[in-house]
Design a protein that fits this description.
Layout: H1 28-35, H2 40-47, E1 58-62, H3 68-76, E2 84-89, H4 92-102, E3 108-112, E4 125-131, H5 139-152, E5 153-164, H6 170-183, H7 186-192, H8 195-201, E6 209-215, E7 219-225
Parallel strand pairs: 1-2, 1-4, 2-3, 4-5
Antiparallel strand pairs: 5-7, 6-7
This protein binds S-adenosylmethionine (SAM).
S-adenosylmethionine is lined by residues 16, 18-21, 32, 63-65, 69, 89-91, 94, 114-116, 131-133, 136, 141.
């Protein structure tokens, strides 16, 4: 493979080995539907019901990009005074676009931050979500980010992940390998080889995850639960 071009990175993005997209922020909303062959909004429609937005108060969208899903989440929640939806991304240019596109939506915030070092106390969120994010992380960052998902979730909370996974059709394999060759991104190949599943299985979520559905021949929608603490045994 030819060497990858080096793109300029914002201060926050330069602190991670993740594949960050400051350079693509201005065009991302045009490119994302093309890269998902027009299925981006259909896929979001599968994610939203899994977040139980009628009763959920706090949601963290990790690797939120320009915040398309983050806005859909806050718009689907009842306007409770305590609702709190946060989108984080390592690329500061992505966060700037997300803030500009979001206008004033009570309870919605964006921040430049790293998935592997989330700036929130333990148990802060009811839900954590990430879409098309884990194929930007190497194996070590996948593990560290999953540990952070676990830490910032409250007991009884859950994480929803939509990402590249082991292809299950020829069309899916074509799409997944095309992405790998086009972007020359070893992290995509790791997902194709099942490394995301392996990372989940080795994470604190090991005994409480499942694949909810599969899409487009190569994507999986995962649900990872953080069980409620067991009640103290009554004497
Ligand atoms: C393909 S985009 C996905 C954006 C959005 N979630 C979507 O579904 O369209 C992946 C994003 O992950 C961000 N990213 C990469 N490494 C990261 C890290 N370590 N922490 C936070 N964000 C990261 C990139 O900057 C990029 O915006």
């Amino acid at each position: 493979m030819r060497p990858k071009p080096r793109h300029p990175r914002s201060h926050c993005a330069s602190r991670t080995a993740g594949i960050t997209l400051d350079h693509a922020a201005a065009l991302y909303d045009w490119l994302a539907p093309l890269m998902t062959l027009g299925s981006e909004s259909r896929l979001h429609r599968h994610v939203l019901p899994l977040l139980d937005l009628g009763t959920t108060v706090s949601v963290l969208d990790v690797g939120c990009g320009t915040g398309t899903l983050t806005r859909q989440i806050v718009d689907a929640m009842p306007p409770a005074a305590n609702r709190w939806v946060v989108g984080i991304d390592a690329a500061e240019a992505m966060i700037e676009v997300a803030v500009r596109k979001s206008g004033k939506r009570p309870g919605l915030a964006f921040a430049a931050a790293l998935a592997e070092d989330l700036p929130y106390p333990a148990g802060s969120f009811d839900r954590v979500v990430s879409t098309f994010f884990f194929h930007h992380l190497n194996a070590e960052l996948k593990a560290n980010s999953l540990a952070e998902f676990w830490r910032v979730l409250r007991p009884g909370g859950s994480a929803i992940i939509l990402d590249v996974d082991i292809p299950y059709s020829r069309f899916g394999a074509l799409c997944a390998y095309s992405g790998y060759w086009l972007f020359r991104q070893a992290e995509i190949k790791e997902n194709i080889d099942g490394r995301l599943r392996a990372a989940i299985q080795q994470s604190p979520f090991a005994n409480s995850w499942r694949i909810i559905s599969r899409h487009s021949g190569y994507l999986s929608l995962f649900k990872l639960d953080k069980p409620k603490q067991k009640k103290e045994r009554e004497t």
